[in-house]
């Protein structure tokens, strides 16, 4: 897919839906993501987690919410934000399929290997594995002439980094770092707030 | 890629790299010269990204802990609930 090299445009600010929400917000500038949008997505996810996620799973879920809300608040033209959202969706689909498989396996009473149910189960499993193999095969780092060796490590760290051209990789990295930093600041601010400081 | 006139020039690459350098935290900027070799900067960027990932993990953990304190009845819990509503 061709990636056009355009300057990142500032996200259009949406009206704050919840006037009671008090979150660490500072003015959004063209270079960094809208802190308001970041806070909106993340805090909404936190509220949902607080309501419906059991305690032992919360850390993991909060971490995933941090990355998805960061990707949602970012410019959708960014390769990294699209790649991140894709990864999250794929992981959710895999867990759902795995859960379905587990239910089928446990529901089936000691079926012989040639049984109809286990074949369907195997088909599902192999499609999942095949899809996984396809995505990993496509994700082979694409090294260009004149690109320093370190770029490979960077490609692995930035979501979607494997398919980018070197110059684009640098731009995307800069945007990714800015968004990551803003997300960390948001979370730190929330921790301070919730600790009653 | 369509719409591009040939390769990206080295100058543009250097510009992008110096923009990246501007994003790195102060401490590593002081250690490096004004124009560090690209590979060193990429290495710094990689470790910075990794440290940011670690911070996200750590803060998620703390937020999860703090969330469980919200299950109690306390004036703090009330404040937090009103924010999240």
From TrEMBL, chain A:
UniProtKB keywords: Nucleus, Transcription, Transcription regulation
Organism for this UniProt entry: Eleusine coracana subsp. coracana
Predominant cellular place of this UniProt entry's protein: nucleus
GO biological process: regulation of DNA-templated transcription
UniProt-listed PANTHER family: TRANSCRIPTION FACTOR IBH1 (PTHR33124:SF40), TRANSCRIPTION FACTOR IBH1-LIKE 1 (PTHR33124)
Localization: Nucleus
GO cellular component: nucleus
Regions of compositional bias (Pro residues) in chain numbering: 8-18
Keyword Transcription regulation: yes
Domain of life per record: Eukaryota
Protein name: IBH1-like N-terminal domain-containing protein
Upper classification of the organism: Eukaryota, Viridiplantae, Streptophyta, Embryophyta, Tracheophyta
Domain IBH1-like N-terminal as annotated: residue spans: 41-90
Pfam name, any one: IBH1_N
InterPro entries documented for this protein: bHLH_AtIBH1-like (IPR044549), IBH1-like (IPR044660), IBH1_N (IPR059002)
Automatic annotation (TrEMBL), chain B:
Keywords: Growth regulation, Transcription, Transcription regulation
Origin superkingdom: Eukaryota
InterPro entries: bHLH_dom, HLH_DNA-bd_sf, PRE
Pfam families membership: bHLH_ILI
Gene3D superfamilies linked to this entry: Helix-loop-helix DNA-binding domain
GO MF assignments: protein dimerization activity
Residue ranges of every copy of the BHLH domain listed in the record: 1-52
Alphabetical GO biological process terms: regulation of DNA-templated transcription; regulation of growth
Keyword Transcription tagged: yes
PROSITE patterns tied to this protein: BHLH
Family as reported in the entry's similarity comment: Belongs to the bHLH protein family.
Record-given protein name: BHLH domain-containing protein
């Amino acid at each position: 897919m061709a990636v056009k090299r355009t300057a990142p445009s500032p996200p259009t600010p949406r009206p704050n839906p919840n006037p009671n929400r008090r979150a660490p917000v500072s003015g959004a500038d063209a270079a960094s993501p809208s802190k308001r949008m970041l806070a909106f997505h993340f805090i909404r996810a936190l509220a949902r987690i607080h309501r419906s996620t059991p305690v032992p799973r919360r850390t993991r879920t909060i971490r995933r919410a941090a990355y998805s809300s960061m990707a949602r608040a970012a410019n959708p033209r960014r390769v990294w934000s699209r790649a991140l959202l894709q990864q999250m969706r794929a992981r959710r689909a895999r867990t759902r399929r795995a859960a379905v498989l587990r239910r089928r396996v446990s529901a089936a009473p000691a079926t012989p290997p040639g049984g109809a149910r286990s074949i369907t189960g195997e088909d599902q499993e192999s499609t999942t594995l095949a899809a996984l193999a396809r995505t990993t095969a496509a994700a082979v780092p694409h090294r260009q002439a004149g690109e320093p060796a370190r770029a490979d490590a960077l490609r692995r760290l930035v979501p979607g980094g494997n398919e980018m051209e070197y110059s684009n990789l640098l731009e995307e990295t800069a945007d990714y770092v800015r968004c990551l930093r803003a997300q960390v600041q948001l979370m730190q601010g929330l921790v301070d707030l919730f600790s009653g400081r | 890629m369509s719409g591009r006139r040939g390769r990206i020039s080295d100058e543009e690459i250097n510009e992008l790299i110096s923009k990246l350098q501007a994003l790195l935290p102060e401490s590593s900027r002081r250690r490096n010269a004004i124009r560090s070799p690209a590979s060193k900067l990429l290495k710094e960027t990689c470790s910075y990204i990794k440290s940011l990932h670690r911070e996200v993990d750590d803060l998620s953990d703390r937020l999860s802990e703090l969330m469980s304190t919200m299950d109690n009845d306390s004036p703090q819990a009330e404040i937090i609930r009103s924010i999240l509503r």
